[in-house]
Design brief:
- This protein has five domains: about 80 residues, Single Sheet (N-terminal domain of TfIIb), CATH 2.20.25.90; about 150 residues, Rossmann fold; about 200 residues, Dimethylsulfoxide Reductase, domain 2; about 80 residues, no CATH class; about 130 residues, Beta Barrel (Barwin-like endoglucanases), CATH 2.40.40.
- A hairpin with a 2-residue loop joins strand 2 and strand 3.
- The chain contains 28 helices and 26 strands.
- The strands form seven sheets. It has a seven-stranded mixed sheet with strand order 5-4-17-16-15-6-7. Strands 21-25-22-24-23-26 form a six-stranded mixed β-barrel.
- It has about 775 residues and is an alpha/beta fold.
C-alpha cells in the first residue's frame, strides 16, 4: 500500500521547491512531528531545506507524507524559535551565554532545594519528549538527580489509563497490544480518529491507506465516536455514542459474548486468569440496560459482538476518546478484555505486541514484578503516583498551597502545561507565583514566558533521531536511525548536554559539572544492569569490555547502540555477527524491516503470576462506579450538554500553531454544535458563543454541523494563544480559545489520575 507523493500533492505543499542545479544534497530522516514515524527525503542547500518529500524507500512509510512533514522546513527556520539561552530580567528576556545561563540556574534553584528540600522542585515532561532520543535517554538522569516526588508529564493528560490497564493486565506500562491492521479482517475503533491523528499508541505510517486496504480486501471497519470524524466517514459503519459511556458499550459486548457462548480465548487460554470474574461482572451490563445511556441500540450491540466473534481475525482499538474520560482505565481495560474473549489477543490479525529492537523487558525472560502504584502521594489531596509521576491535576495546587513540601520551583521540558492541562487559568496563576523556573524549549510560549531561564535545544537537523518509545507500539517491527545532517554552529549546544548539566546543578554539583563524566556514569550504570540481567545476550560479560566497545560514541547515540546491541535482534557485542547495532542502522538510511508482529505470550508477560490478569482488582473495584452512569439524564431529557475534544491533521501540539503552513485556511478553533441544539439555544452558524463550565468560560465561533451528535459539543485542544508575554507571532494571529479552561482539576479517572476532557458538562449561549 505504498503512497507516493503525487504532483497534485506537491503543489499543495508550498515548501516543495527546488534550488539552482548542483547546490543541493539529498538526505533521509524520520519525521518527528507525530507518532507515525514517516520517512522524509530532504533536499538541503547547506543548512537550508529546499524540498521535502516522502521517502519512497522507507521500509515503513513507503513514501507517505502528511502536511506536517512539509512543516519541518518552516520549523527549522522559524524566526520566533529560540537559538540562544534566555534569562528573564523583569518583564523581558535577554540572550546570554551558556555559562551565564547555568550560573543563573544554580543561583536560583540551589538555595530553594537547600532550604526547602527536593520536593520543593517539580518537573514537567511534555509530549514532544516521546519523539526525542536525547530526552528519553537522559530524563531518567535528571529525575534521579532531583529526587523529587513532584514529577508530572503529558501522560496524565491523554494516555495514562492505557498504560495503567496494560500494566495491570500484562505487567508493563508499555506492554500495550496494537491492532495488526495490515492483516486484520475486522477493526472496531473507539474514540480514535487516525485520519487526523495518524495513529496514537499505535505507530503506523499512512494509517488511512492501511484502513482503506483493510476494506479493499473485504474487511470491515466500525468506528464508535460521538462525532462523525473523517475516519468515521471512511468506515463501513459509524456508531455515535454518548461521551464517557465507552466502558458501558464494551461491557455490553462482553455480556453478549458470555451470554451467547461466543467466548473463545484461542491460543492464550492457558495464560489467562480471571475469566469467571469477568463473566460475573458483565451480567449487569446487558445491551438493553446500557443502550439508553450510551445511545447505541441493543440490537446493534448484539450484532457487533457476534461479528467480532465470527470474524476470521478481529481487533478492538481505543484511543484518546476512551482515555480522557472519567472511566478511562475501565474503557482501556475492556478493550483488551474483548480482544481476549474473542480469541484475538496475540494472534496475527488481532491485537499483538511489538518486539522493538531496543526492548529488554520480556525479551529474554518473562519474570516480572508487575506494577505497583501509590508508592508516593501528592501533598495536598493525597493522590497516588502512577509509573513514578503524579497526576497533572495536582500541579497547580501543589504550587499554590502553602506549607511543608510546597512546590516553589519548576523545570519544564518540551511542554506547555499552561495550555494543555485542566483549569488552565489556575495553572497560569500558579506559574506566575513560582520562586524560580527553568524551561528547555524552542519557544517563549504560554508556559515558558514564566521561566527565569530558557535553554534551547539544538536544531532538529543537528541531532540524531530514533523513535525509542514509539517503535514499542509499531504495527510492524522496524528500526530506523537518522544521523545529524548538519554540524552545530558556534553557540549551539546539544540538548543532552544541557540536560546532564542541569542534572548536575540539581544534584548539587554546581553550574560547571563535567558533563562527559556524568554521561560516563549513565552508560556505566546501563552496562552493569544489562550484563546482570538473566537471559540477556550479554549476561555475565565483562562490563568494562562492553563500555570500551562503545567508546567511539558519546551522548544518546552511545546509549542507543548499547540498547540495540543487547536487544532482541542485537549482535550481543560479537555474539551474533549478523545482529543489529547502530552501525548497521547507519548503513541503512531507509531503515530495516524486522518483520511482521509475531505471537509473544507468555514471553511478554511481566505480571507476578506470569499470566494475563483479565480481572485486575483495581478494575473490578471500580465497576460499581460505572453502573451509576446508567442513571444520568441525557441532554434531551434536561441534562447538560457535554464537551468532547477533536483533532486536526495539521495540529498535533500547541507549538505547531506557530507554523503558517499548518494554520493557514479557515479557522479550526470553533465549537461544533448539532443543529437541533443550536436551534433550541437560539444561535446560528458563525455566531460567537460563550461556553461555560463550573471551572471557567471561553468565547469562540459556533460551527453548526450534524457531524456531532445531539447533546454533544466539540472544541479542539491546544489553542488559546492570546496571552501577553509570549513570542509566537503566527500563533498569536490565530489565537483561538483554550478549551482546557473548561476542564476541572477535581474531575479525573481515579484509577489512573488522568484528567477528564471528554464528557464535561457545559452550557452554551450566544454572546
Amino acid at each position: 500500500m505504498p503512497h507516493l507523493v503525487t504532483r497534485a500533492e506537491k503543489r499543495a505543499y508550498p515548501f516543495a521547491m527546488t534550488t539552482s542545479a548542483g547546490t543541493t544534497r539529498i538526505e533521509y530522516r524520520t519525521c518527528h512531528l507525530c507518532e507515525a514515524t514517516c520517512g522524509l527525503e530532504l533536499h538541503l542547500d547547506g543548512r537550508a531545506i529546499t524540498l521535502v518529500r516522502g521517502d519512497r524507500d522507507d521500509v515503513f512509510s513507503h513514501g507517505y507524507l502528511c502536511p506536517k512533514g512539509t512543516a519541518v522546513k518552516q520549523l527549522e527556520s522559524d524566526p520566533d524559535r529560540i537559538r540562544r539561552p534566555l534569562v528573564r530580567r523583569g518583564d523581558a528576556f535577554h540572550e546570554v551565554s551558556w555559562d551565564e545561563a547555568f550560573d543563573e540556574i544554580d543561583a536560583g534553584l540551589t538555595p530553594i532545594r537547600d532550604q526547602y528540600g527536593p520536593d520543593a522542585l517539580a518537573i514537567y515532561l511534555g509530549n514532544p519528549g516521546a519523539h526525542n532520543l536525547a530526552g528519553l535517554v537522559y530524563n531518567r538522569a535528571l529525575l534521579q538527580a532531583a529526587r523529587t516526588k513532584n514529577v508530572y508529564s503529558a501522560s496524565t493528560v491523554d494516555q495514562m489509563p492505557k498504560q495503567v490497564s496494560a500494566g495491570l493486565m500484562f505487567g508493563g506500562g508499555l506492554t500495550i497490544p496494537v491492532p495488526d491492521v495490515d492483516r486484520t479482517d475486522y477493526l472496531l475503533m473507539l474514540g480514535a480518529n487516525p485520519y487526523a491523528s495518524n495513529g496514537s499508541l499505535m505507530t503506523a505510517p499512512d494509517l488511512p491507506g492501511r484502513l482503506h486496504a483493510l476494506r479493499a480486501r473485504g474487511g470491515k471497519l466500525v468506528v464508535v465516536d460521538p462525532r462523525r470524524t473523517k475516519t468515521a466517514e471512511e468506515a463501513d459503519e459509524h456508531l455515535p455514542i454518548r461521551p464517557a459511556t465507552d466502558a458501558l458499550f464494551l461491557f455490553a459486548l462482553v455480556h453478549v459474548l458470555f451470554e451467547d457462548d461466543l467466548v473463545d480465548l484461542g491460543d492464550v487460554a492457558a495464560h489467562v486468569n480471571g475469566v469467571d470474574d469477568v463473566r460475573r461482572l458483565a451480567t449487569a451490563f446487558a445491551p438493553e440496560v446500557v443502550a439508553p445511556a450510551c445511545g447505541i441500540e441493543a440490537a446493534i450491540i448484539r450484532r457487533i459482538a457476534h461479528e467480532l466473534a465470527a470474524a476470521p481475525t478481529a481487533a478492538v482499538y481505543g484511543r484518546i476518546g476512551t482515555c480522557t474520560q472519567e472511566f478511562g482505565t475501565l474503557a482501556s481495560w475492556l478493550v483488551d478484555v474483548v480482544n481476549v474473549c474473542t480469541g484475538n489477543l496475540d494472534r496475527p490479525g488481532g491485537a499483538m505486541f511489538t518486539r522493538a529492537a531496543t526492548s529488554t523487558a520480556g525479551t529474554f525472560s518473562n519474570e516480572g514484578r508487575g506494577v505497583t502504584f501509590g508508592r508516593r502521594t501528592s501533598r495536598v489531596r493525597g493522590l497516588p503516583e502512577y509509573f513514578g509521576e503524579l497526576p497533572v491535576v495536582c500541579l497547580a495546587e501543589e504550587i499554590e498551597t502553602p506549607g511543608d513540601g510546597q512546590v516553589r520551583a519548576l523545570v519544564t521540558i518540551a511542554g506547555n502545561p499552561a495550555v494543555s492541562t485542566p483549569n488552565s487559568d489556575q495553572l497560569r496563576r500558579a506559574l506566575a507565583s513560582l520562586d524560580f523556573m527553568v524551561s528547555i524549549d524552542i519557544y517563549v510560549n504560554e508556559t515558558t514566558r514564566h521561566a527565569n531561564v530558557i535553554l534551547p535545544p539544538e536544531p532538529e537537523l543537528a541531532r540524531g533521531h530514533y523513535d525509542l518509545a514509539l517503535y514499542n507500539l509499531a504495527i510492524r517491527n522496524v528500526a530506523n536511525y537518522s544521523p545529524p545532517l548538519v554540524e552545530l554552529e558556534p553557540g549551539e549546544v546539544p540538548e543532552w548536554r544541557s540536560m546532564l548539566r542541569l542534572a548536575g546543578v540539581i544534584g548539587g554539583l554546581g553550574a560547571h559539572a563535567d558533563v562527559d563524566a556524568l554521561d560516563d556514569v549513565v552508560v556505566s550504570g546501563l552496562v552493569s544492569k544489562v550484563v546482570g540481567r538473566r537471559g540477556s545476550n550479554v549476561e555475565g560479560r565483562d562490563a568494562d569490555e562492553l563500555t570500551k566497545a562503545l567508546a567511539t560514541r558519546r551522548g544518546p547515540e552511545r546509549v542507543l547502540d548499547l540498547m540495540l546491541r543487547t536487544g532482541p535482534y542485537g549482535d550481543g557485542f560479537g555474539a551474533d555477527p549478523e545482529g543489529l547495532s547502530l552501525a548497521v542502522l547507519e548503513a541503512n538510511p531507509h531503515g530495516i524491516d524486522l518483520g511482521p508482529l509475531q505471537p509473544r505470550i507468555p514471553e511478554v508477560l511481566r505480571t507476578p503470576s506470569g499470566m494475563i490478569e483479565l480481572a485486575p482488582e483495581a478494575c473490578v473495584g471500580d465497576v460499581e462506579r460505572l453502573r451509576s452512569v446508567l442513571e444520568r439524564p441525557l441532554a434531551r431529557d434536561g441534562g447538560p450538554l457535554v464537551l468532547v475534544g477533536r483533532r486536526d491533521l495539521r495540529s498535533n501540539n500547541s507549538w505547531m500553531h506557530n507554523l503558517q503552513v499548518l494554520v493557514k485556511g479557515k479557522a479550526r478553533c470553533t465549537v461544533h454544535v448539532h443543529p437541533d441544539d443550536a436551534a433550541r439555544l437560539g444561535f446560528g452558524n458563525g455566531v460567537d458563543v460563550r461556553v461555560r463550565s463550573s471551572s471557567g468560560e471561553i468565547v469562540l465561533p459556533a460551527e453548526v454541523t450534524d457531524a456531532v451528535m445531539p447533546g454533544v459539543v466539540s472544541i479542539p485542544h491546544g489553542w488559546g494563544h492570546d496571552v501577553e508575554g509570549t513570542q509566537m507571532a503566527t500563533a498569536s494571529r490565530h489565537a483561538g480559545a483554550n478549551s482546557n479552561v473548561l476542564a476541572r482539576t477535581d474531575l479525573f479517572d481515579p484509577l489512573s489520575g488522568n484528567a477528564v476532557f471528554s464528557g464535561i458538562p457545559v452550557e452554551i449561549a450566544p454572546v
